[in-house]
């Protein structure tokens, strides 16, 4: 939550009205006389913003005693929250391996120093030329590609392509992490609804993880089972509809997603009687995907223009 405050309007001559900027906010961002700020009207609100970000956020931490997985999570979340420099102290090289494995997913970050028991990870690019909306759209596109690969490769029995879906999840993480960092760091994102976008990005990252899991278990199943082909085809359709709905909300697409969700979940429930563990794992991944994608239209129902009643 931002800091809320009130300002008195100052009248200059007949046509000019002024309000002062919060001093701490301006000082933190180095705003000075003559600088240009961006002013956007949003209904009853006026949003004043600048491309300048507050000073560098740094942290020194000791991850000794944590697992490598928790070290990985710490680094990812610190990046998303906007930290620019992190110095890690650790008690074994498994933590270092976790850091080295995660850093390539953090756009603009590199390992700068590395000794036996510590390393420094920091931003080497303060102004990356990646637009937030382009990065968000890329997350959607990669997930659509993962869905298509799962369907086509399963039908063809292409186990190599299915196992390679994991590398596309790496790309989902990379762009999703960048978007989450941008929300926290600059607030430069569509529509000003940070909470909704943050939830969306976390959800899309989960979808990428589940498609990775789905592909892994599809590679272990008998090729071209009609029920699985039908389920994955419907999963492809709901993924495509969720993407289209987010950028162009239509009532028919919202209804189609709801209907597809029920069809997929009903089919999964019937098939879950199987004793094949790989089939069960694949079915559960599908259920997780459809559960998350179902929420995309529900979070944007208010943007469907067809539902508006003109006064």
List the helices and strands and how they pair.
Elements: E1 10-12, E2 16-18, H1 23-28, E3 38-42, E4 45-49, E5 58-62, H2 68-81, E6 85-89, H3 93-102, E7 109-114, E8 118-123, H4 132-156, H5 159-163, H6 165-185, H7 194-218, H8 226-247, H9 251-271, H10 277-298
Parallel strand pairs: 5-6
Antiparallel strand pairs: 1-2, 3-4, 6-8, 7-8
Helix pairs in contact: 2-3, 2-6, 4-6, 4-7, 4-8, 6-7, 7-10, 8-9, 8-10, 9-10
Describe this entry's structure for a reader:
The chain is of the alpha+beta class. The protein folds into 3 domains: 10-49; 58-123, TusA-like domain (Translation Initiation Factor IF3, 2-Layer Sandwich); 132-307, Up-down Bundle (Methane Monooxygenase Hydroxylase, Chain G, domain 1), CATH 1.20.58.220. The protein has 10 helices and 8 strands. 29% of the residues are buried. The mean pLDDT is 89.
Instruction: Write down the CATH topology of the largest domain.
Output: Methane Monooxygenase Hydroxylase, Chain G, domain 1
Rg is 24 Å
Strand sequence of the main sheet, in spatial order? 5-6-8-7
Low-confidence stretches: none
Number of E strands: 8
CATH top level label of the largest domain: Mainly Alpha
Fraction of helical residues: 40-55%
Write the H/E string, N to C: EEHEEEHEHEEHHHHHHH
Tell me the β content: 5-15%
Number of helices: 10
The appropriate CATH architecture of the largest domain is: Up-down Bundle
The largest pleated sheet is described as:
4 strands, mixed
């Amino acid at each position: 939550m931002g800091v809320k405050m009130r300002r008195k309007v100052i009248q200059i001559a007949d046509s000019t009205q002024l309000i002062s900027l919060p001093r701490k906010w301006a000082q933190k961002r180095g705003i000075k006389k003559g600088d240009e700020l961006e002013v956007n009207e949003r209904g009853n609100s006026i949003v004043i913003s600048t491309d300048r970000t507050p000073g560098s956020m740094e942290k020194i931490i000791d991850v000794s005693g944590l697992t490598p997985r928790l070290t990985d999570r710490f680094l990812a979340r610190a990046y998303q929250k906007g930290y620019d420099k992190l110095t890690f102290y650790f008690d074994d090289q498994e933590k270092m391996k976790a850091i080295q494995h995660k850093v390539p997913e953090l756009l603009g970050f590199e390992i700068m120093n590395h000794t036996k028991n510590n390393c420094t990870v920091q931003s080497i690019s303060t102004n990356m030329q990646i637009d937030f909306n382009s990065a968000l759209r890329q997350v959607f596109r990669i997930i659509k590609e993962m869905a298509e690969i799962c369907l086509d490769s399963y039908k063809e029995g292409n186990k190599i392509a299915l196992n390679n879906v994991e590398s596309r999840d790496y790309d989902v993480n990379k762009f999703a992490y960048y978007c989450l960092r941008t929300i926290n760091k600059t607030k430069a994102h569509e529509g000003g609804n940070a909470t909704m976008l943050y939830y969306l990005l976390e959800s899309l990252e989960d979808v990428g993880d589940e498609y990775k899991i789905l592909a892994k278990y599809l590679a272990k199943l008998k090729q071209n089972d009609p029920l699985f082909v039908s389920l994955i085809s419907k999963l492809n359709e709901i993924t495509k509809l969720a993407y289209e709905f987010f950028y162009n909300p239509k009532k028919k697409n919202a209804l189609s997603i709801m209907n597809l969700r029920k069809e997929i979940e009903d089919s999964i429930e019937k098939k879950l009687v199987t004793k094949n563990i790989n089939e069960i794992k694949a079915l559960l991944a599908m259920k997780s995907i459809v559960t998350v994608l179902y929420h995309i239209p529900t979070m944007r129902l208010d943007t469907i223009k067809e539902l508006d009643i003109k006064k």
